[in-house]
Design goal:
Helix content: 25-40%
Order of helices and strands: HHEEEEHHEEEEEEEEE
Largest sheet: 5 strands, antiparallel
Strand content: 15-25%
Oligomer: single chain
Number of helices: 4
Shape: globular
């Protein structure tokens, strides 16, 4: 069931989105050569705690997961696409890092992700992050009242195809509001003019995940959470929570 949010709810979600933005900034600022992934989680936890926000990630256990998620952020490094569990791994020069974070504040949720490079970047990684950001921008630009979900999906998929990047099958964006995952599903590929109609008050988490090798295949780590590219190529993941409004798309997870 798709919930259309009131303008008051959009304002409340904007506040949750600001917390997400601050938590992601804290995790990114904490990242550096020799820093553990667990330390990035600790930086984000401090922001959530200080804002009086709850993590929708911590303890989350969907049907595919063997255990509840143990952290407030997902940290995915190099060939990890999404859902990376932050543990003791220490960042190395040139690592490509994706951090995904959510926050629930006063009953409303925000969700966003960033990708960045620690230390000296590889040119190919810079291109991958750039293409992923462009795919997100294209998806957001298509998130206008009167369009349909397929228009967002087509916009994202077109950028990925032009960059010759793969995207993991079965994974994409989603509705968001009182819960982190709500209807409708937002595929990262699709046909324009198809799918659920976009109208004022619909809120979506739009999240392209691009894989440099060009394949759509992935595998799941033994932790039951981390998704990795099947060919070992690098991946990037960038996400925003976006409200459909009569004035155009409104990004709720900006600082």
């Amino acid at each position: 069931m798709v919930e259309i949010k009131t303008d008051a709810a959009l304002e409340a979600m904007r506040e949750a989105g600001r917390v997400v933005a601050r938590a992601l900034a804290a995790a990114r600022d904490a990242a550096g050569v020799g820093v553990s992934l667990r330390e990035l989680d600790e930086a984000a936890r401090a922001v959530l705690s200080g804002a009086g926000a709850r993590s929708p990630f911590l303890g989350y256990r969907p049907s595919f997961a063997p255990t509840p998620f143990p952290a407030v952020v997902c940290v995915s490094v190099n060939d990890a696409i999404v859902h990376g569990v932050p543990g003791g791994y220490r960042l190395r020069d040139g690592d490509l890092v994706s951090v995904d974070c959510g926050a629930e504040l006063d009953g409303w949720t925000g969700d966003a992700a960033v990708s960045f490079i620690v230390g000296t970047p590889r040119p190919a990684d810079l291109e991958l992050v750039k293409a992923t950001g462009e795919a997100l921008d294209a998806g957001i630009a298509a998130a206008t009242a009167g369009n349909r979900i397929g228009d967002i999906s087509h916009a994202i998929g077109s950028v990925a195809a032009a960059a010759r990047c793969g995207m993991p099958r079965d994974f994409g964006g989603h509705g968001i509001g009182r819960r982190m995952h709500e209807d409708p599903h937002v595929p990262n590929r699709g046909r324009p003019g198809r799918g659920f109609p976009l109208r004022h008050g619909l809120v979506l988490a739009i999240e392209p995940m691009l894989m440099a090798g060009g394949s759509d295949d992935y595998r799941t780590d033994t932790d039951g959470w981390t998704l990795r590219t099947a060919d070992g190529s690098r991946a990037a993941h960038i996400e925003h929570t976006v409200a459909i409004t009569e004035e155009g798309p409104r990004i709720l997870t900006l600082p």
